[in-house]
Amino acid sequence: MIIEDNNKIKSKIHALLPMKFNELGLMPSLLKAVNEKGYTDPSPIQEKAIPLILKRKDVLASAQTGTGKTAGFTLPLLQILSKQPNSNHRKIRALILTPTRELAAQIYDNVVEYSKYIELRASVVFGGVNQKPQVSKIRNGIDILIATPGRLLDLENQRLLSLRNVEILVLDEADRMLDMGFQRDINKIMNLLPSKRQNLLFSATFSKEIKRLAKGILNDPALVETSPQNTTVEAIVQYVYKVDKNKKSNLIIQLIKEGNWRQVLVFTRTKHGANNLCKKMINANISAAAIHGNKSQSARTKALAGFKDGSVEILVATDIAARGLDIPLLPHVVNFELPNIPEDYVHRIGRTGRAGAKGEAISLVCIDEKQFLKDIEKLVNLKIPSKIKHGYEPDPNAVPEPPKQQNRNNFRGNKGRSNQNKKRNNYRK
Predict the structure, then answer these.
(1) What pTM, to 2 d.p., does this model score?
(2) Which of 57, 271, 301, 347 could form a disulfide with 292 if both were Cys (CB 3.0 to 4.6 A apart)?
């Protein structure tokens, strides 16, 4: 009786302890690769998703950037494929769709790292670069393809690849794909895939659009949520500087210099705004680079590499370009302009305060952004503390500017479709 009680106590204690990677059902070759990366404890999304995927369940998972979701689907995917023999001529058996080139490249790097002791081949395809090397690798035979929707369809239309043998489909950052206007491309890709397959959909939020997408793709999915929807990370210190719009550039330069900030990710609402701010920082002897959809792939890759190795201190980015960027231990995120979509604020600041480290999220807010701030505070259920820096006080008599009329130079007849297509075309290849 005493022995039985002790066993029950041990079982309860074990249940309270953090799970280890070797308890998730992963094979030794994968565990070896994981250990070499220095990981022993899986993140909540990994702990929940990996066993379900290994059981060949369709999965609908909500996970913010920086939660370890890439390994959450990569590791079980590799195990499933490795247990089945490869044919002499390898065919694409797993397709991972991502919204941006940067995210596609990062997932590819992860797949390569985790599969180093497994006989599987992977490749990545995205636009902005010559397609010939990508096509050559596919022709040599691959098991796993990581792709952006536009380049994938371009290659399929040229009959340079086939998706008829795909066994596992992963849609990563599905919410952003919809935001970028990829719904039609996704539908086309679905029609190219075999009906019998395992489907994994990862999204930062479970919006109505995502639920509708999931319903059309997933078959009796297991639902995985790792944190309350739209909550911000507790490790992040958030505050607002109230400032006039025309003083923002000088204020952020002052804050960077006074605080001796290094590795700061700054968000602007537009590509033009990113370029202008970057120029002002460089003129102030601050090492900065901009990343957005009008930048070439080589320029974006160079900027990101410089930011990671410290040669570029400030990375100025638009929301879409920064989505999915994996930058560990990022100490500062600055909202030079608040997003007009409150959920984007959560995505932005979620890039700091990772891996148990402290982070700061600073927002420069002018009178025109007052409503944006209210919407954000309502979403995150938090009154964000505000500051005023001496010398940069906002005009107490300032009033919000009226909403701008549609810019005639940008008008193309059908506004909604034009804007959506422009957004997609910047990233579709």
Answers:
(1) 0.66
(2) 271
